[in-house]
Amino acid sequence: PLITASILSKKVAAGLDALVMDVKTGSGAFMETLEDARALARSIIGVAGTAGMQTHALITDMSQTLGWTVGNALEVAEAVELLNGGAREARLEEVVLSLAAEMLVMGRLAPDHARARERAATAVRTGEAAQRFERMVAELGGPGDLLRHPARYLPRASIVEPVLPPTEGWIASVDARAVGNVLVGLGGGRRVAGETLDLAGGLSEVAGIGARVGRERPLAMVHARSPEQARQAAEALRAATTLADGAVSPPPVVHETLVREIVAAT
Fold first, then answer.
1. Would you report the helix, strand and coil content of the chain in percent, each value rounded to 5?
2. Where are the beta strands (DSSP E) in the chain?
3. Alpha carbon of 58 to those of 38, 40, 188: distances in Å?
4. Dist. CA 21–CA 54, nearest whole Å
5. Do residues 137 and 149 lie in contact, with contact meaning Cβ atoms separated by under 8 Å?
6. Contact 44, 7 (CB under 8 A)
């Protein structure tokens, strides 16, 4: 109930007509089990419905890193790459397009999910999404050319090196919360309020569940300020990753969509 109230109070106060929630489940989520994620989603949808705000919820996977990167500047760079029509990680793209399509359908800007997804994908492909994001950054006081020249503004770590697995194999599972703590150890998250963040620290080229890793394919590339920091991050990432001897199928990206239609009071 407290989580529901915290999330919805601002949305209801803003007077939204419709809302799409991305409720995470998995080792990196607050609601680790699918059952708990469903309970939170139903709570949000139900309370929003009593306020007359139609709400849908997508339950999406957070049992591993979403995208190829972990870190402040690194994740922004990955988002910029996606918006600029460059390389994009399939799971990240799926979550983005699924949420966008749900919003377009709820807003009656597309007649169905198939055409809504195509419209969202077209916005990325044509550069329309990038242009709008760039205008948003500028309106908020940021640089007006972030998407054209991201390297000018996103800091880089002095050390970038591979994190090799202890043995060759397939990634069977990942403790995503522990991976988040790797970022904290690299200075990218606060241990205490007011602590200065190292925006350059993190992980890139992160291998996902089902990937075969070994000497030719590391678990990730670590971005650090010192050799000791890089060493500690590598050890923590290895400890957070479980390998298998055979091929492993990754979990679904979008588990399900929960919907409640709002019926006008008589």
1. 40, 20, 40
2. 18-25, 54-61, 159-163, 169-174, 202-204, 212-213, 220-224, 241-244, 254-259
3. 9, 11, 28
4. 11
5. no
6. yes
Distance of CA 214 to the CA centre of its chain: 26
State both tokens at 34: 């699918």
Paired strand residues for 213:
169
- 220-258: pLDDT as tens digits: 999 999 999 999 999 999 999 999 999 999 999 999 999
The three-point CA angle 110-94-122 to 5° equals 45
pLDDT tens per residue across span 23-57: 999 999 999 999 999 999 999 999 999 999 999 99
Within 10 Å of residue 195's Cβ, how many Cβ atoms?
Answer: 11
For residues 79 and 13, give the distance between their C-alpha atoms in angstroms, rounded to a whole number: 29
Q: Where are the beta strands (DSSP E) in 89-179?
A: 159-163, 169-174
Q: pTM of the full predicted structure? A: 0.91
Q: Confirm if 26 and 179 have CB atoms less than 8 A apart.
A: no
Distance, CA of 201 to CA of 157 (rounded, Å): 6
Q: How confident is the model at residue 142 (pLDDT cuts 50, 70, 90)?
A: very high
**Is-contact 164 218, C-beta < 8 A?**
yes
* Residues 204-222: b if buried by 16+ CB within 10 A, e if exposed: bbbbbbeebbeeeebbbbb
Nearest partner of 58 among 43, 37, 78, judged by Cα: 37
